[in-house]
Amino acid sequence: MPLQPSSHFYILLKITSAEIIRLISPNSVINKTIFNSETRFCKNCDEISYLSKKIPTIENSFSQVMSPETAYQITSMLEGVVQRGTGKGLRDLNLEAKKRYFNLQKANEEIEVAKKSIESSSIGLRDAKIRFESGIGTKLEVLEAKTQLARDQQLLNIKVGDQKIGQRSLAEILNFPEDVTPLIGSKTQVTGIWDLSLEDSIIAAYDAREELDSILLDISINNSNANAALASSQPKVSIVNTTTSSFYQGELNQSSPNMNTESSSLSNTIGLNATWFIFDGGNSRSLYNYNKSKAKEAKLNFASSRAQIRKEVETVFFKLESAKLNISASYAEVLSARESLRLAKLRYKSGITTQREVVNNQRDLTDSEVRYIISVTSYNTLLADLSRQTGLDNIKPCDIKVNQQNQSDIDSKSLYESNLIPLCQL
What we know:
Blueprint (H helix, E strand, L loop, with lengths): L8 E5 L6 H5 L17 E2 L13 E2 L9 H67 L4 H35 L6 E5 L7 E3 L3 H11 L1 H22 L4 E14 L12 E14 L7 H67 L5 H36 L4 E3 L29
Parallel strand pairs: 1-4
Antiparallel strand pairs: 2-3, 5-8, 6-7
């Protein structure tokens, strides 16, 4: 029977998490000229030579649509929108896209683990049936094998559902059509290593938060307003100096004026003005106290915001360190569980142990592989979160492959770069 074509289109995204940003960036362009509406004339363009110092000029035939002052104000407002509005939203969108990408990767890897477990459990059930039919096994061993196979099938069903949810979630944030489903071709692995200390990360986070600059500006504005309010009630003295010079040629009220007659005058006036509101009902003092209280409130908000930023960075940084250690521990657990299952199968075939030991070791291996995938996904997510909070991309690439010589490094308690070597790819 021929296969029916699917009503959905599938796109294989063989990309890293960093490349997702290109798909959601509103600034993506096509480097190809489709239409050119330039009609201005270029002076001396036909005389360009590498021996000449003449610089061609293009005549500005456009009409002025706004004043330079208005253009400056609009540019300043747009800069604020980018820094505190659209730009901030785009960075948050990038972080959410990375998280959904990693979650879909995790679901794909967990499906592979579940399939391998089903395959192993099916072989165990087949062997248990053969031993039972041969008279050297028991009915209990067959039932235990069936139970483990059913558990693995349930795990696969759950992970398939998680995969579908993750696909639609990623398609939503990438703005794909409803009939397009993204598929991830890359494997779950450590994306890199954070290359900054805790204090450097906190300082970078301070620099990346525009709200701190806004609070500092509020403090300065309130202090200036307070000083202006207090100055309004102080004596004001102003000195005025006026100089007038005039020159005349000719005569007035004469029918035949003598144009050789000349006259001139020079006058200078100096004045002193003094103004002092002796009593204003305490208005200036109350405005001064009000603005000073606003400045003090802004200082407290500044300290509170800095403390909150530090707390957030410390929390993510410490979680990242814990996730790094969990990767090392879970990786060692996977290797031990694999070897335990291999030995249990050999013992079972030799008649030394029962199917229960094989089932238990099979379950332990499945759980350890799932925990390893969760640890790597959590590490990558925290790494992306720390990069977002600090505004930096100080992630050292982790492109070292696994080999037999460095697998022994996982038993070391100190987690240096050499201990991350077996974690870059399982």
